[in-house]
Amino acid sequence: MEKLKDKKLVSASTEDDITSKNASRIEAKDVKVWYDDFQAIKGIDMVIKPNTVTAFIGPSGCGKSTFLRLFNRMNDYVEGFRMEGKIKIEGNNIYKKKVNVEELRKEIGMVFQKPNPFPKSIFENVAYGLKIQGIKDKKFINERVEKALRQADLWEEVKDNLKKSALALSGGQQQRLCIARTLAVQPSILLMDEPTSALDPISTAKIEELIHNLKEDYTIIIVTHNMQQASRISDYTAFFYLGELIEFDKTRKVFTNPEKKQTENYITGRFG
Ligand SMILES: Nc1ncnc2c1ncn2[C@@H]1O[C@H](COP(=O)(O)OP(=O)(O)OP(=O)(O)O)[C@@H](O)[C@H]1O
User: Where is the ABC transporter domain positioned along the sequence (predicted)?
Assistant: First the structure.
């Protein structure tokens, strides 16, 4: 796989095709995180295979979001943040000094809990990432926008109203728009931090179906508090507790025959 070679991460470049890239493999080695004196992650190892959906579960404050945000270096902005260990994507340590964080974030898209479209048109929201990369070719941009909206299963609903404000869409449509905006720059990994917790059941079902379809092209990690959701959509589940990775296995195994008592207690609702 070519996409995450050092070359790509250290020098800005624009893609000139609209084909999908391959999903990436993620590897965490003895990862520890502190916020000032508080240790939020206590030595985690994990390998996430390409083209899989992995759910991060665990009670509030156990470190799921902190761990997720390591993969696109979002924690770098947090005051007092310090990390030890290695995060490798396609074999490249993404915390090396020479890594271009802007480039990294094109490869690793993120979708947040609350849909956060820009106060711009539907089209401009999806085209945004391409335009800030300096891409000017209108035909290319149009094709990418359509492709991303189709991948996010929103195209049929918005194709006649691309100039309409994104803020006029429903919450569920806005979240699919945010997914399209992320997909337009063709990442290889999609990080989702509770992407459906603000949505109604129908919109949630749509996003879940979408996640299922997207794993053909992406490696997906989703933080969720919803056990049914984790068991419905993920191939692997990681259970975190107090900054430690207690169990990480195939989802079916975690939910039907967990190795650890703590996991069982959590998934059966006995704590958290
Ligand atoms: N910016 C920060 N500064 C200081 N401590 C933080 C910061 N962000 C998170 N923490 C602490 O790190 C720990 C892990 O937080 P994190 O948000 O990763 O947990 P989480 O499992 O995602 O929780 P939730 O399910 O409630 O979102 C918590 O104790 C939290 O208080």
Answer: 26-267
Task: Kindly report whether the global pTM for this prediction surpasses the value 0.95.
Answer: no
Closest CA to 115 of 184, 54, 194: 194
User: In the predicted model, is pLDDT for residue 12 greater than 70?
Assistant: no
pLDDT in tens, 257-268: 999 999 999 999
Cα gap 14→175, rounded to integer Å: 26
Domain residue ranges in the chain: 6-10+22-115+189-267
Per the CATH hierarchy, to which homologous superfamily does domain 6-10+22-115+189-267 belong?
Answer: P-loop containing nucleotide triphosphate hydrolases (3.40.50.300)
Ligand 1 pocket residue status of 35, Cβ below 6 Å: yes
Whose C-alpha lies nearest to ligand 1, atom 6? 35
- CA of residue 35 to ligand 1 center, whole Å: 9
What value of ipTM does the predicted structure carry?
Answer: 0.98
More confident residue, 106 or 162: 162
